[in-house]
Each structure stands twice: as C-alpha cells, then as structure tokens.
Amino acid sequence: MPKLKLARHWWVIGIGLSLLFLLRFLPPDTSLARLRQKGSINVCYPPNLKPLISYQRVGDKVEGIETSIIQSLAQSLDLRINWNLQRDWYRSIDPSAWGIRKGACDILVGGIVDSKASKGFFILSPAHLQSGWAMVGEMPQRRDEVGFWAPYFGLDVARFTATSYLDKARLNPYFLSDPDEALSMLKSRELKAVLTDSLTAAWLAEMTGLASWQIAELPSFGFSLATWKGNVTLRRAMLKSAKSYRPETQP
Amino acid sequence: MLALDVQNLSYHYQGGVQALKQVSFSVEEGSFFALLGPNGAGKSTLAHILANLLAAQEGEALVAGHSVKRAPIRVRKSLGLVFQEPSLDDRLTVWENLDFHARLYQVGRGKGAKIRGVLELVELEKWSHALVRSLSRGMKRRVEIARAMLHEPKILMLDEPTVGLDVSSRNKLWDYLKGLQSQGVTLFLTTHYIEEAEGAHQVVIINEGEKVAEGTPHELKNLIGGDSLRLKVIPEGLEALQAYLASKVEKVQLEGEMLHIRVGNAEKFLAEMMPQYGDKVTWVEVERPTLEQVFINLAGKRIADSHADGREQLLNFAKAGGEHTR
Amino acid sequence: MLFYLSTIYAIWLREIKRSFRDSGQLTGAFIRPMLWVMIFGIGLTPYFSGGISESTFVVPFTYSQFILPAVAVLNVMYAAVQSGVSLIWDREFGFFREVFASPAPRVAVFLGKLLGGATIATLQGMLVLILAPAADVPVSWRQGMLATLALFGLAIVFSAFAIVIASRMSSFQGFGVFSNALILPLYFLSSSVFPLDPSLSVEQQILIFPPWMVFAVRVNPITYIVDMLRGIMIDYHQFAPYLGSYVLLGLCAVLIPWAYREFQRRS
User: Fold this and answer.
1) In whole angstroms, how far apart are CA B260 and each of B213, B233, B283?
2) Would you give the DSSP letter of residue A103?
C-alpha cells in the first residue's frame, strides 16, 4: 500500500498549525498588563440601582447583588478595587452626557444589559445575572398609573416593548427617577404597582410586603460587566473568573 | 477481426483549418500499426478522434468493433492510451496514479495485484511509492504504458511515445511494446520517426491531413522501385553488362563509370547476375530505400520538425518555473 | 451509481492530495490569517475602540472581530480559485486528457473537481477560525458548524466560478493575475475591511463614502456572504439576516450549472 499517505510537507502543516495555535495566545493588547502594574482596578458604577448596586453614604461603601462578581474578579486577579462613583450615570437619556470617561473606568458595572446596544460601546462579560420583567404591588386596573423603573444601559428595545405592553393594557406609565422613590410610592400607595426588572421587583416586594409577579410575555435579559472595546486581555480575565463565579443571590 | 476500422474520416478545427481529409484505413487485430507523418500532419488529431477526445465531422471509426460515435464508453474501455505529452499527475506517486486510473476504468477487483502486475511489466515495482515528479522522462513513459495496460485494453494507442527520450530509454520502451504485441495486444503508433515505423506490420503515411500511402514497409519501399544498385564495371565489359541489365530492368543509367539501376531485391538480382558477369564488376553499391525516401518521393519534403505553437510556448513558460501553473 | 461515486471519490481524493502536497499553497493559507487577523486586525483595533462619547460609529464589535469572518472568506476564495485554475493546466497538458479519455462520466468528474476544490477551500477557511480567540470571537460548536457550512457554500460557489473562468481561458500567465484581478478586488469591495455603517441608509452612506464605492460594495455578492458569516460568528448584520444565504443559494443555482456547461464544452 502507498507509503506516502497525504502530505509530503507535513512540517509545513505542522509549523503552520502550531504557529496559529501559538498566536491565538498572544496578548492582543495591554489592558490587563496595565492593571497588574497599577495593582488596582477602577470600577465605575451608577449611584443608585438598588438592589443591584448602590452607594451607601452611611459607612461610605458600595452595596448590592452585583458587587460580588466584581469582588470575585478582583480577587482572582489579585487587584484592589477602586470604586469610582459616576454621579450622572442614568441621569439623562443620552449616555454621552453621563460624563463617563474612558480613562477613569477599567470596568463598568450596574445594570448593563447584555445586548447589541451595549456592545456598541463596550465589550461584555457573559451575563452573570438573569432578569426579566416583573410587576410588584396590586393588580392594576385600566387607566391606573403604574410606576416604571428600568434605566438600564442597553435595554433600549426591551424597554420599548415593556412600555408598549403597558400601553396595550391601558395603563399609564409613571416614570420613576430612582428605586427609593418606587419604594416610597408603593408604601404610601401613591402607586398601585410598579413595573421593573424581576430582581428589583423582588427587592421591592420584600421591603413592602407586597406581591410580585413575572410578566412572561416580555423578554428576559441578563446583566453583564462591561469594559472598553479593545480590552481583550482584560475581558479574557473576566471570562475566566466568571466561570468560577457562583452568585450568592440568584432569583 | 479488425482492431480499427477508419472510414472517410474528416476533421476541421473551428476557423476552418482542415486537419484530416477523408482518411480511411484498417488495422488487423494483434498487429503493429504505425501512422507516419511529419508534425502537423494530423496524426494526433486522428489519435484524439479514436480516443474520443475530438469528434469527427465526417466519416466513421470503429474501435474493436465499436463505433466511436455511438458507443464511446466501450471504445474508451478497449483503448489503452499513451499521449504525446506526459499526462501523469506528478504530485502523486506512481501507485496513486495507477490507482486513480483503476478507479476511472472500474478495474475493481484485484486492483492491487493488477497494478503490481503492470509495474512488473515495465520493471518499476521498486518505484511504486515514488512521486512521479522524481522520475526520469523514460521512467514516466514506462509508467504511462503500465497505466494504459492496467485495464487490459485490446488496443494500445501511443501518440509519439518516444519524443524527448534518450536512445537507451527508447530501446527499452520498444522491448516492452514488442513484448506486449507478442501477447496479442494491437499496437497503434503515431510517429514522425522513420525507424519506429520500419518494424511495423502496416504503415499509413499521412501528410497535411491526407493519406498518401499505405502498406507494409516493404511494399511502401517498392513504391519507389526497390533497392538502388550501382555497379562499377571494367571498360571492356560495359557494353555486355549494359545489354544484360537492359533486358532485366526498364531503365539503366550511366553515371560516369557507374551503372545505376533500381531492382526489387538487390541480393536476388546479384545472385543471378554475378556468376555470369562477376569478372567484369569491380565495385558494387547497394542502397536500400528508406521510408524517409518514400515520404520525400510522395510528399516532396522531409519529415522534419515544424514551428512551436502557442501551447508549446505555454509549456515552456511553465517549465521555466511559471508561477502556480500546476 | 457506484461508478459515479467511485469517480467522484477518485477525482476528489486527487484534488485533496495535490493541495496537501503543495507547500506553496499551504504556506499562503497559513500566512494569510496571521497577517490579516494578527497584524492588520490587532493593529487597527485601537482606532475603532472609542469610549461612550468618543465613538464616531457606534458598532457592536471590535475591529478584529469585524475582520475575522472576512479573512475566512478570503482564505476560501484563494484556495477555491487555485483549485479551479489548476484546471487550465490539467486540461491543456496533462492529466485531464487521461481523465477525459477514460470512460468516467463527465458529471462525476466535474462534481469530484468541484467538491475537491471546495473541501480544500473550506479547510483553509477553517484555519482562520483557529485565530478566533485572538480576535475575541467566541465560537461555540453551533456557531462553528454554521460557519463551516457557510464557508463550504462559499467554497462551492467560488470553485464553480473559478471553473467557469478556467474553462474560458486557453492560456494564462500564472496565478498572480487571478489574485490581483479577481480575489483582492472582490475582497476589498465586500465590506470586509471597513463597514458601511448599518445605521445609515444608502443616501447617508453616499454622503460618507463616495457613491461609486457604495454601489460597488452593494452589487458585490461576496458582501452578503461576508455579512452572513458575521451574523453567524459575531451576531452582527448589515443586511437582512437571511439575505446572505439567499444570495449563496442563488449563486449556487446559477454558477454550478454554468460551470458544468463550460466544463463540458471545453473538455
């Protein structure tokens, strides 16, 4: 039978393949190397996105479900966390007015939805939290005012479907400006119900003792960590730590 | 039974160049047939028509009794082909080339044994796993002959098989071919080398697409009147000998001291003449006619090489290392 | 039927063996993704990675991610054209004379040639996927399969195209002509190295890019195939999601019969 099986220049194929496999491990940028040199990581976050993340004046600390993923990441990279509060984040509709500067943030966290719209600005880690739409309070009747709270980054399309859902149910949306307002208006019965993401809804229900229920017709979405485009090495580190990350609270 | 039967075959290329004009001949089974002619005479065209690579516009050809037009697959199966230009894949090994051929010709069962058999035939068993590009030209030709024999064809058709080979390779090739012929394979050879046609049972000479002569080499030579015989005669005997010769042949020429005649067979003639006139003859010159002379007589020109065409130019470009041509 | 398959297999196998033994072609297949993804892609990535307010074009990918599928297409085109073009040589001098004089059916010979070229081209296209992690394109098994399928489709189309061209040429001056006159123009005009911003209408694109270029990109069928591959690999479309596969099927329907006609006419 033929001794010459297929290729004559196996070494060309060997060298070619091994070069390709080696090249894929070449760091394509310096984003991770810079952090290691600095010894710390700048994490930008919005002021109040309870229960996901929020700044507590009392004790000067950052709290919320989303802080644990950051801590796990910083731990795996052996970096100090440098919490960097972005005061104007979510204050207006236009993200370019939020004053988030590239140089000040290595990673961004806080209600960043894993969506195409977010990918227009960031590269994302795989979603570490799953959420959807939920209502909290009493079942609203036609023409009732229903609080609406979902300022999340990259939610654009889903937000639109949610408001049109309210429209169809003949409910009037009342746009809330932060989760504390939602809480107080529910408590004072100024609002019968609030439509928000299911994590926030669960928190509101717990705080008020009201019922909450999922809106299955509306699409679910996930929250991710974000970093700037081109920070491929940092994102790889994020992916790696995300694999070992076990969330403490998962609805 | 006839191995080949060609009837009034005509072919003209697009653009009107007529390559074959009403050519007819037939080849006996088991014989050695040579198609002789200069380059561009239409030999390859004819071979390609028989191999079904070209379709003749007029006429008919039967290969092993099958019509080229109506039963092309049977024709193809009964022909073993060796082309003028090498047609092996030189990036495959000898074995792989033969294996490929065996698949295309549905050799099927016993394929391995058959491949070994034909390689033995051309004494290349040891080279079966060599890449074809590493072989010499002569060896490549032998591989092609082995390949052509792989599907056990009735007729082996060789189109200028020895072009570009050195003398010893040629001789070797002829040994193989004669061996095959003695086993009953019909040999169909196109060539412009006279010597190769000399050994054939039957020769057809073509020139500019027309058949100009047909017959055994001997018959063809007789066309120009047989052997040429020159005799130097002592002056006293000249008259007597001239008279004797005039009684035997039509034309006796006196060239200086030499008498020149043409006879069918010089030996026979001399054997008859010498006992009577041997004492008058001082010098005998016998010249046998060659097919070359026959051709010159018939076509008025030599069988010589002609110009290089566009394809040959491209071939040269590639041989000079033309980029990515293969 | 068995004979058809056997012929297809013989021709296919020969095509595969030849390509694997052509170190020149192999070298090209390995070097090309390295150049385009590792040097071109990574080199230009920082220029396309602004912050929130710094971005000129808001696009959901990085430059390396953007170019990777196009490089796979480029590798496929090279290999497919190389295989098709070898037909000129085979037909004029050599090996295909043996094939055409054999009892093997032409359809099977044609299909073997087409599939052989397409297989090699697909393999070379898949080489590019090895670099996907370097370009930050996560490729799941499902995406990998779909991408391979798409590359195979392109490989078939391009092999057929190359056979058409090879059948219509009686002589040629080497492969350089094809790479410069055919592959590279098609590649550069396929929205491969720069995006026509998807959020812009044709009228708006013409304001940014010269109209002749927008036109050339839009009539180039490779554009839609690159776009389909991007859809599979980085979930990004400039055009309707299924447009690419329709274009591919359309090209198959036109080019394969055409290539067969030319192939038969010239053999």
Assistant:
1) 26, 11, 12
2) G
**Given its phi and psi angles, is residue B91 left (phi above 0), alpha (psi -120 to 50 degrees) or beta?**
alpha
* CA atoms of C178 and C88, how far apart (whole Å): 13
Which amino acid makes up residue C21? R
Interhelix angle C2-21/C106-130, nearest 10 degrees:
40
Q: What is the pLDDT of residue B100?
A: 94
Residues of B in contact with A8 (CB under 8 A): 131
Q: Is B96 on the interface with A (CB under 8 A)?
A: yes
Helix (H) or strand (E) holding C205, with range, is helix C202-208
Q: How many helices (H) and strands (E) does chain A have?
A: 8, 15
Q: At what angle do helices C106-130 and A10-23 cross, to 10 degrees?
A: 40
Looking at residue A122, the DSSP 8-state letter turns out to be E
State the Cα torsion C70-C75-C78-C79 to the nearest 10°.
-140
Over 50: is that where the pLDDT of B226 sits? yes
Is-contact C36 C74, C-beta < 8 A? yes
The closest of A118, A133, A99 to A217, measured between CA atoms, is A133
Residues A81, A72 contacting (CB under 8 angstroms)? no
CA distances to A113, A185, B102 from A197, rounded to whole Å, are 11, 17, 70
Buried b (16+ CB within 10 A) or exposed e, B199-216: bbbbbbbbbbbbbbbeee
Distance CA C248, CA B42 (A): 46
Angle at B124 between CA B119 and CA B130, to 5 degrees: 110
- Among the partner-chain residues A7, A16, A230, the one whose CB lies closest to the CB of C49 is A230
Mean of per-residue pLDDT scores for chain C: 86
Count of residues in chain A = 251
Distance spanning both ends of chain A, measured CA to CA: 64
Query: What amino acid occupies position A55?
Result: Y
3-state secondary structure of B213: strand
CB-side neighbour CA atoms (13 Å) of B157: 26
Are the C-beta atoms of C80 and C125 separated by less than 8 Å? no
With contact defined as 3+ CB pairs under 8 Å, the chains touching A are: B, C
Q: Which residues of chain C have pLDDT under 50?
A: none
User: A101 and C51 in contact (C-beta within 8 Å)?
Assistant: yes
Contact by Cβ (8 Å): B205, B296: no
| A195 neighbors A162 (Cβ within 8 angstroms) | yes
Chain B nearest-CA distance from C17, in A, is 7
Alpha-carbon torsion, ordered C77, C82, C85, C89, to 10 deg: 180
Three-state DSSP state, B258: strand
Here the ipTM equals 0.85
> Residue B30: what residue type?
G
Structure tokens, A213:
């229920």
Where does chain A have alpha helices with state H? 10-23, 31-38, 67-77, 116-119, 156-168, 179-187, 198-208, 232-244
pTM above 0.95, yes or no: no
Q: Which class for B251: exposed (0-12), middle (13-18), buried (19 or more C-beta within 10 A)?
A: exposed
Asked if C51 reaches chain B (Cβ–Cβ under 8 Å), the answer is no
With H, G, I as helix, E, B as strand and everything else as coil, classify residue C210.
coil
Q: Do C6 and B103 touch (CB under 8 A)?
A: yes
pLDDT < 50: residue spans in chain A: 1-2, 249-251
Task: Tell whether the model's pLDDT for residue B53 goes beyond 90.
Answer: no
Task: Read off the pLDDT of residues A141-171 as tens digits, 9 standing for 90 and up.
Answer: 888 889 999 889 888 878 888 888 888 889 9
**SS3 letters across B275-324:** HHHHHHEEEEEEECCCHHHHHHHHHCCCCCCCCCCHHHHHHHHHHCCCCC
CB distance B103–C89 less than 8 Å?
A: no
Q: How far is A98 from chain C (nearest CA, A)?
A: 9
